[in-house]
Amino acid sequence: MRKRVNYVSLMFLFTLILGYNAQAQTIADRITKRDVQPKVERMPNIINTLLHDEYAPAISPDGRTLVYQSNAGGKTWEYYRLWQSMRDTVTGFWTKPSPIDEINGDFKQGDIYGGPSLSYDGKTLYFFAKMGEGSEDIYQSTKGTDGKWSKPEKVAGAVNTGEYEGFPSISPDGMFLYFMRKKDGGSSSNSGSAESDKGGSKTKYPSCYKLMVAKRKLDGSFGEPTELPSPIPGDCDKHVRIMPDGQSLFFSSTRTWLSPKDSKDFDLYYSAMEPGGAWTAPVLTDMSPWVRTTMYSYQPDMLVSVAPNDNPHVLAYFSSYRGASHELFTYPLQERFKPKRTCWFNATVVDSATGAKLKPTVKVTNLTREPLSYEKYAEQGKFKTVLTESNKYRIVFELDDYEPVTKVVDLTKDISEWECSAMIKMRKKGVQATITVLDGLTNEVIAESNAEIKPDDANGKVSEFKKTGPGKFFALLNPGTTYTANGSADQYEPASISLDLKNKVAGDTINREIYLFDLSKIVFQNINFNTARPRTMDEKELDASLLPKARQELDKVHKFMTDYPRISIRIEAHTDDRGSDDYNQGLSERRAAAARYYLTKVKGIPESRIEVRAFGEKSPMVPNNSQANWALNRRVEFKPQIKK
């Protein structure tokens, strides 16, 4: 954007300045009163300097940080550097601008740094630069915790070529980089504004560019850029700027079929992505002709940056050429050009069992505007992105050895219903087991119950175990092995079940129940036996040997099984320790068989509802050290259970 300033133009400029303020204010007031346009305001003199260009503003979303290119600050007027100014949050005044030395570096004649674009969080600055020989390329710099910018680096990927790439503009989510690239066979200038180099707009051969966009890949680099599709390209285009909503843009263009009659100036156009992904036909903004007629701008070569969160107005910051230099202005955007509202979506991502911070891959699918979908890595333990009003999103978190987690965020709803934060708990892959502890008589959940799961061998592992509700428990288990699940509750007899996962694979689910019986409601006295004679007895003889009290107890068991037909009984028979192990084992088997015979053959209970176990002398109730204790250990016990 080289400039030639002679004494005649200087005299003209000074004369123009004398009458500018009053006349411009009068015109602006008149137009405002007619409700045709809001007022364009020139930025203060601390920003706009006499006879120097202030160009290509980039404003942070909150309107507090301004970065732009300027040739101020030296004798070499025709070469450009990046400058920044901060707005005081109390007074609203801008600080004195200063060059960003960390980026401009060892500035040499012939270098150029320009076309800045701030990321939505203000921590990354994109710009183009020409350093020494070669063409312009796009660079980036990040702001450290000390507020200083890092040394510039070329953006990674396929954006930069041996030709001109300039004036980048980054989407709010940081995933799409818009920029302009020299047209094949066309000319270009260092600033992308060759028209203003010649002091006017009606040049014979203006510099024209292709408006490009590149999508960031998972590795952080940008993929192969593509030209913005029809209907955006016009006769001659440049300076594309994506807005903070990521789905509307402004750009400069000459379009004889849309521009004011006989106008060959670059005007500012607007387009937005519709649901489905197509761009709307470009609309000539009201700003361009109004600035041309009221601001004495020969050619409103405007680069727009918008501060959507700078209340009470959404201001557009733009530069415009006024005969001798470019200056910066602000303009309250009309409602139809305001970017859609956005929300910072913040997700905390942790292991569901340990709480450890995780770094998954996140796939963000825009279900409304599919071309704006992308995937990226989360930071350790957190994921942040910008989501836009009028869109519905499906956000999937994926990580090796973990089950994917899907979150749907619907910003088509009223803003009061937006969900802009989430706790993402990722569960390791495995068999997902749900255990419910129930009352064996009523089949109701035992709310205050407890449970545990233990592996039966070294191959088993309980990756996660937690109580998920009254009487409900969740466990994440290894497939291909077996486990034992134990349930317990006050006043209930503990119970266990086996979990056989030998034929299960990761991702399978199982649902099992543990039935407990309230011992205060089920009272069966143990059946005791006299010392058995040392000879084999058949079932009838054992039945005949049952004591009368034992028969009474078996009758109670029969009534219980009749009242609760879904409940089965396990008969467990025991002996004292007198006699050999083999003898006692056989004796306990015959005693269990005698009880089963009475219940099935005499009382008519189906055999399928009776299970018998004989323990011999292995499980004494009390020590075998007296006649009384021997009698207690000679017993048959009854254990209710639910058979599926």
Describe this structure in words.
The protein is an alpha+beta fold. The chain folds into four domains: 41-185 and 207-337, Glycosyl hydrolase domain, family 43 (Tachylectin-2, Chain A), CATH 2.115.10; 342-428, Carboxypeptidase-like, regulatory domain (Immunoglobulin-like, Sandwich); 431-519, Sandwich (Immunoglobulin-like), CATH 2.60.40; 522-642, OmpA-like domain (60s Ribosomal Protein L30, Chain: A, 2-Layer Sandwich). 15% of the residues lie in helices and 35% in strands. The chain is built from eight helices and 39 strands. It has a five-stranded mixed β-sheet, with no helix packed on it. β18 and β19 form a beta hairpin. α5 crosses α7 (581-602). The longest helix is centred in the first third of the chain and has 27 residues, at 7-33. It is rod-shaped, with a radius of gyration of 41 Å. Mean pLDDT is 84; it is low at 1-35 and 190-204. InterPro entries: 6-blade_b-propeller_TolB-like, Bact_OuterMem_StrucFunc, OMP_bac, OmpA-like, OmpA-like_sf, WD40. This is Outer membrane protein OmpA. One of its GO terms (cellular component) is cell outer membrane. Residues 530-644 form the OmpA-like domain. Keywords: Cell outer membrane, Membrane, Signal.
